[in-house]
Design goal:
Blueprint (H helix, E strand, L loop, with lengths): L54 E3 L5 E3 L14 H13 L3
Antiparallel strand pairs: 1-2
Length: 95
């Protein structure tokens, strides 16, 4: 791995006092910086999409309902990516 020239976030860590004499270092000259980077995958977050299937009542009294999108067949269900991840963890990783 190599250091990135454009990290997404930089957190600066400053020493509060001298390790030899315990004097405060707030106004001391900077002697250098050592860069250390941690590459991490962002936390996964579930995204919930609600499909509202509307019904309309005609003047004749008949209620006609809109069609739900293909594959949306239950009040609550997993999407294809969530189902694939669950299947992989269950069968591939025995979790």
């Amino acid at each position: 791995m190599q250091l990135s020239d454009t990290p997404d976030r930089v957190v600066r860590h400053e020493p509060a006092c001298c390790s030899a004499c315990a004097a405060g270092l707030a106004d001391a000259a900077e002697a250098g910086v050592v860069r250390r980077q941690v590459t991490e995958v962002p936390e996964a977050r579930a995204e919930v999409t609600e499909h509202q299937v509307a019904g309309r009542r005609c003047s004749c009294g008949t209620v006609t309902w809109a069609d739900a999108p293909d594959g949306v067949t239950a009040p609550v269900q997993y999407g294809p990516r969530a189902a694939a991840i669950a299947a992989y963890l269950w069968h591939g990783q025995f979790l």
